[in-house]
């Protein structure tokens, strides 16, 4: 018996299965909890798969009738932004095409073996590694929240690799926008700020590390990907 008189209910818990409910942004809405499987001492792998599948539909129901549509719109927005930036049809121009292949030797969370990583790319003025202002993470979170309201995102985001063992692989090409305020800034002053994030379904995503690449030193044509060493945020 796992629990006797569980929370004063008078029920003894022999077995339990808990599966989280996620919304379209992979944030946790709640959980499904099953207890005391009839005719068995425990839940099987088939039970886990079934409840996970049911949780996907229940999560979409809880989020609303347009949950699935939001998934499609998010994917479409990402593809249209890349096409518009490369085509140069708007006030935003494509500054850099970034080739994201994979990561190696990422740190682990204390409570689990692997993080759920994704990467953002943005164009900044000045080397961000030399910016020692206080609370860099909070400034980044505020900037990203503001950026989500824009038609063209300043922070170009990769896909999130969820619950994958080993080194994550993306194999994505991501277009990074040049904001209008940087239109007259010399190329020598511009840097691509690369941030690796750990997605957290229950709380705020965490910044794992950063890198900076001077735009002036980038090749005109895309070639073979080169490794970048990630450094911690200081401040």
Give structural notes.
There is one protein chain. The protein is of the alpha+beta class. The protein is built from three helices and eight strands; from the N terminus they run ββααββαββββ. The protein has helices at residues 45-63, 67-87, 136-147; strands spanning 16-22, 28-35, 93-102, 117-125, 156-157, 169-178, 190-198, 206-214. The strands form three sheets. It has a four-stranded antiparallel sheet, with no helix packed on it. A two-stranded antiparallel ribbon has the order 1-2. Strands 3-6 form a two-stranded antiparallel sheet. A hairpin with a 7-residue loop joins strand 7 and strand 8. The model has no long low-confidence stretch (mean pLDDT 84).
